[in-house]
Write a structure and sequence with these properties.
This protein is α+β, with helices and mostly antiparallel strands. The protein contains twelve helices and twelve strands. Helix 4 (about 85-95) runs antiparallel to helix 8 and helix 8 (about 240-265) packs antiparallel against helix 9 (about 285-320).
């Protein structure tokens, strides 16, 4: 589904998008190893994803973007993750910038979304503020910004970025967000990871100080208030904020787990178990036990994700926001799903034996991609299990535990 004057049109029925992604799946699987070698999603894949309509997920509704429920987004990401986990991650992560894009004034963000182009329009970097060096200082009519922002997923194909900056040298809690054209930033091309390498999550930086006019500077508090106002008017994103984004992203993990199970089952009749009596792996009871356990683990993870999805959609219909304890539970559910899927895929990988290590075999890439996703700070299962335990025990979580913009330590 191609372009209008504002770029990719808002997606039609989400079921149709899932069907288009299923048709695109063979292409994504065939080219995911090449994407890893390039350390970015190839342009032709970007164009095919654009044809499928997925980049409408990154566009504010008032500029023609999709307005899908949490369930619909989750299913789209699962279909995408089953084709290429790195592509699914990049599309999902870039969609997170939509929250900020929905919050700036229309005349500021209209130039971002109206030009015709393929791919995501924005990327956002906020959650790595304990490591980021971005700062801003007052200037006539705006701000002078400088610094570096690592893990800028989606920056390769985007035209603009939303970057977190510290704007008060005496108070690290004072964080702002600036909207910056990407062509004003330096791309360091330094993303070379053992998993999700194809996401191109490079560092972006300024070359000295960069002037940002006042209308392109805001704070999380002002942006959140604007988001709430737009949502009440029916022109903003659905309720849920960051937890909703993270819950929909579990679809990428589950899609990779679906792909891994398909690969494993497809190769059963072709493998033996060396140094055992089984010349066909399909005859070995350990194989049946492994498949049963992995299937149940993926199914359980899917049920946890389904419950979180349903809860968020119910709150959205009722016009209710999440409490702090509910937010912690959502984060923990997300971390559980990612860890369970990564562990399930690794179990299948081990059951394939040494031949699975070959780079031509897809299972090793799926395993590395999913485990890398589970290591993201927002998905770290140990951190979120501890946070949940603190919440259940009535212990103060601290000011930074559930925030995407943390003060430096």
């Amino acid at each position: 589904m191609r372009s209008t004057a504002m770029g990719t049109t808002a997606a039609s029925a989400p079921e149709e998008m899932v069907i288009r992604l299923e048709k695109l799946r063979p292409w994504l699987r065939e080219h995911q190893a090449e994407a890893e070698r390039q350390r970015r999603i190839p342009q032709e894949t970007i164009e095919r994803l654009d044809e499928a309509g997925v980049f409408s997920l990154t566009t504010p509704k008032r500029f023609g973007g999709a307005d899908f429920t949490t369930r619909e987004l989750h299913d789209i990401y699962r279909a995408l993750g089953a084709g290429c986990g790195a592509s699914g991650w990049m599309v999902w992560a870039a969609a997170g910038g939509n929250l900020w894009g929905a919050a700036f004034a229309d005349d500021v963000v209209r130039p971002v979304y109206e030009p015709v182009r393929a791919g995501n329009r924005t990327f956002a970097v906020g959650g790595t503020s304990r490591r980021m060096t971005g700062t801003a200082r007052r200037a006539d009519g705006g701000w002078l910004v400088k610094g570096a922002w690592p893990f800028a997923t989606g920056s390769i194909h985007a035209s603009h970025g939303f970057l977190a900056v510290f704007y008060d040298e005496t108070d690290d809690a004072k964080v702002g967000m600036v909207l910056v054209p990407k062509d004003q930033l330096v791309e360091r091309d330094d993303w070379d990871a053992m998993g999700l390498a194809a996401t191109g999550s490079q560092t972006v930086a300024t070359d000295g100080e960069l002037f940002v006019p006042d209308e392109r500077f805001s704070t999380p508090q002002r942006l959140a208030a604007r988001v709430a106002e737009l949502t009440e008017q029916g022109t903003g994103p659905r309720r849920g904020g960051l937890p909703r984004s993270l819950v929909t992203g579990t679809g990428v993990a589950l899609g990779m787990a679906d792909h891994a199970m398909e690969v494993f089952l497809g190769g059963l009749g072709k493998r033996s178990i060396p140094y055992s009596p089984y010349t066909n792996q399909l005859d070995a009871p350990i194989t049946h036990l492994t498949v049963g356990r992995v299937h149940s683990r993926i199914r359980a993870a899917g049920r946890v994700a389904d419950a979180a999805v349903a809860e968020l959609d119910r709150y959205d219909r009722q016009g209710v926001d999440l409490s702090e304890d509910q937010t912690v539970q959502m984060h923990t559910d997300v971390a559980y799903v990612w860890d369970a899927c990564a562990s399930a895929i690794e179990t299948l990988f081990r059951a394939c034996g040494a031949s699975a290590m070959a780079k031509r075999q897809p299972l090793q890439l799926i395993a590395r991609n999913c485990r890398a996703g589970s290591l993201h700070a927002a998905h770290n299962v140990d951190t979120w299990m501890e946070n949940l335990g603190r919440s259940l025990c009535g212990v103060d979580l601290g000011p930074a535990s559930t925030s995407v913009l943390e003060r430096r330590s």
